[in-house]
Design goal:
This protein is mainly β. Helix content is about 0%, strand content about 45%. The protein has one helix at about 80-85, and strands spanning about 45, 60, 80, 90, 95, 105-110, 115-120, 120-130, 135-145, 150-155, 170-175, 175-180, 185, 190-195, 205-210, 215-225, 230, 235, 240, 245-250, 255, 265-270, 275, 280-285, 290-300, 305-315, 320-330, 330-335, 345-350, 355-360, 365-370, 380. The strands form nine sheets. Strands 1, 6, 8, 11, 14 and 16 form a six-stranded antiparallel sheet that branches. The longest helix is centred in the first third of the chain and has 4 residues, at about 80-85. It is elongated and about 120 Å long. The mean pLDDT is about 90.
Length: about 375
């Protein structure tokens, strides 16, 4: 075994059918195949940077190059290994495509504006690096079709010396870089990932790079503004007994792949339940709401995309009103339990043809003292 020979791990991408739900993957029957990791990536909109490439910064191992106008990715005769980098890589669950090896295939920033595929996107994600040292506080400006702009200040580490800047990730680590004489510098070099949050309600047009030739951009992918999605439809929320105060949330029932803030709105259903924008549920059902209550709700994101779902809450009947009457001195005392407040006590003097009349106003308690006015009076208590 040659301990001086570098060992590399290679990335491979398979295009899946987005209209279907993936279940599993069957591997080949080959003990010499080693799988280290598998991730599922979302399909982005890849920005075609071909017309903006102005340096040759990715070469296959063993290739010699002179290319005096560029002298590699750093202007000093060094380049990323195309053998390690491949034609594409996945970072942050997003696929990135690189330019062809052994040709102009990276962008050295000179303040140029790169046209991007027009559309509404949630994020602009970029694979880039600094060369000839770290490049702090670089200004990237995105332009929208309505004239609006978004300015992002981002520091970029040198490809050999990570500074762990805010907003920067080590997207790809490679065990060597290639020299113009075909030699390999077998240390660890990095390609970094950066993510800029876009205004998904606006149509993106372009991005202006910093005016700094030591900022190198290899690939840009745009993350579509995917609509929020309910995890299940329909779904069931916990039940309640009529008369009790309901409290719950559906905030965790919907999610957004872009991590956009999701708001909720009630579209249909019994009036006793209120659905707040943050998904909190509140209200008090009454006896008329006993049974399975069905509601239609909408989840909205900041880009005005939405999903709808139906959910149900079972309302059980409150305990029946059980009353008793007692005599205290010359008064009658009514006591009761069960039912739903407020209560209305009614009276009649004839049960054959009753004409029930309210005895005072509604009460929230469970007792009432009555001064009798007739030798034959009947009482009843009504709840909500």
């Amino acid at each position: 075994e040659d301990s001086g020979t570098p060992v590399n791990a290679y990335g491979h991408s398979f295009t899946l059918n987005r209209a279907k739900t993936i279940k599993n993957i069957r591997l080949p029957s080959n003990g010499n195949l080693v799988v280290l990791a598998i991730s599922l990536a979302n399909t982005p909109v890849s920005a075609d940077l071909t017309s903006y490439y102005n340096r040759a910064g990715i070469y296959t191992d063993g290739t010699t190059f002179t290319n005096p106008p560029t002298r590699g990715i750093d202007g000093s005769g060094w380049a990323y290994s195309a053998t390690l980098l491949g034609s594409s890589q996945t970072w942050s669950n997003i696929l990135f495509n690189f330019g062809p090896a052994n040709a102009t295939n990276v962008i050295s920033a000179t303040g140029q504006t790169l046209a991007l595929p027009a559309g509404n996107y949630s994020y602009l994600r970029m694979l880039a690096t600094g060369v000839q040292g770290s490049q702090p506080a670089q200004s990237f400006v995105v332009n929208y079709s309505d004239g609006a702009t978004g300015i992002f200040s981002q520091s970029l580490s040198d490809w050999f010396v990570p500074q762990n800047y805010s907003g920067e990730s080590k997207a790809i680590a490679m065990g060597q870089r290639n020299g113009s004489d075909g030699a390999e510098d077998r240390r660890t070099f990095y390609l970094y990932g950066y993510s800029f949050k876009l205004n998904s309600a606006k149509t993106l047009e372009s991005i202006r790079l910093p005016d700094n030739a030591n900022v190198i951009v290899l690939a840009i992918s745009l993350v579509p503004n995917w609509r929020p999605v309910f995890a299940a439809n329909p779904f069931v929320e916990p039940g309640i007994i009529a008369g009790q105060i309901y409290s719950g949330t559906i905030a965790t029932n919907a999610y957004d792949l872009n991590d956009d803030f999701v708001t909720f709105a009630k579209l249909n259903g019994p009036s006793w339940l209120t659905i707040a924008e943050n998904g909190l549920l509140s209200g008090t059902p009454h006896s008329g709401d006993v049974g399975v209550n069905t509601f239609v709700v909408r989840a909205n994101d900041s880009g005005n995309l939405f999903d709808q779902a139906t959910f149900s809450i079972a309302v059980a009947a409150a305990p029946p009103i059980i009353s008793e009457i007692s005599v205290q001195d010359s008064n009658l005392t009514l006591n009761w339990s069960g039912g739903i407040a407020p209560y209305q006590v009614q009276m009649t003097t004839n049960l054959i043809s009753p004409d029930w009349e309210n005895l005072g106003g509604a009460v929230s308690g469970n007792s009432l003292v009555i001064l009798p006015t007739n030798a034959a009076t009947f009482y009843r208590i009504l709840g909500q």
